[in-house]
Amino acid sequence: MRKSHQMGLLFVATSIIALLGLVSCETRPPEPKEEVVVEEPADVQEPQEPQEPIEVVEEPVKPLSDEEIKAAMAAVQRANLIGASRYLPTDYQSLVDKLNSTINLGDSDPDTARIQLQNLIDEADSLYDRTIIVRRDEYAAKYFRADAALLNIEAEKFAPAEYLNTQKLALETTEHYKAGDTTSAIAKADETISAQARLYYNLAENIRYIDILKRDTKNYLSDAEDNEAFVYAPEELDEANRLYERGLNMYDNYSIEASAAILTEAKQQSVIAARISAIKREQSETDSLLTLVQGRIETASTRSAMDSEGNVIEPSPWEGNAYIDANPLVDLSQNVEPVDIEEAMLRDLDEPLRNELDGVPEDILIEEEGTQVNADEQTADYLALAKKLWEQGVIARNKGEFDIAKDYFEQANAYVNIFESNLVSRTYTVVYREVATDCLWRIAERVEIFDNPFMWPKIWRANRKIIQNPDLVYPGQVLIIPPR
Q1: Which of 44, 223, 277, 358 would staple 353 via disulfide (CB 3.0–4.6 Å)?
Q2: Is the pLDDT confidence value at 102 over 60?
Q3: CA 152 to chain centre
């Protein structure tokens, strides 16, 4: 058994060796065969026949078209319509010159001209945009200057509705600019400036009219006082003063129409007071002389006298009253003709301006502090206003606008009158005393002031802004004393 087992192992081993020998046995490679290369015959090129030269045909240059020229002209015209020729005249004229030269160039070099036309369109568009900016900036400057002028004459108080309308128009202008609606913005801007100019001129004229009414009334009241109206026409004088004070109060409350109406009445009443007092004063002086002479004649008629021949003339008493009884003295003050004063003529605040010289002034006169003027008038440099109006009158005159020139000269003359009427002769400081302390009539009674207690209304009118109640003055108050 064991032997047969060994024989089996030997067989297995022999089989493995045989397998290994079979695997490791080399095989002889086959002999290489020589490859035969067959050469193909070379191509033989046949000679080519000579070709004729090709002619290069140049395409004709395309001339400028009417459409290209019209497009450039339209761009320039667009800039002009927005105002480039007015606001940027140098740039606009340069653009026009370029357009003309480029069109001329189109005849000889249309390609170059075509490029220049496109550049010119870009320049025109840029000029259009810059003109809009310039116009917007100019509008803003005009608006704020005009608004300052309106506030300077207190338009927001005298004419709140009209002033508010200018603010509304300005807001609409701003909204159009923000929305990019240039055409509407420019139209609304022009409307805004026009509304401001109308309001300023008409309101300023109305204020000037009130100033003239105040000046005239003051002058007539002064005439009445000079004629001693407090003696000869006290009732008329009191009524004139009452109306004058009421008119001033209405003006201080910014009711310009009511003020004008009442001051017109005050002016009329002051004229009546002045006329009646003048007649009564002259009549009184005449009557005094009449009585004096009458008395001397009556006395002489009771005495004897000698004529030129030496004859004695016996007394023959005479009484003039008999003649007066037959010919009564007439009180001429009762026959004063009616005083015709034109009714208040204020301008409509929306009334169109007469010419371009009217409107908001270029230089706005600002109130100067410390200038001592009559308290009845606004603090302002009236002499400077008179000069300005005079200068405008000269301009109008040299243009042949003689009627307008006369109006300006008359306005200037009115301001000169206001200036002169506000001159101050001196000041007086109110003093407290245990006995006979200062009051307006005692101050007027002083010899160095008016030497007449009945002249106290002149002091009150000159200091009305600091004296609210003419019966109350306080120690330390410095009062303006107007000329006698």
Answers
A1: 358
A2: yes
A3: 9
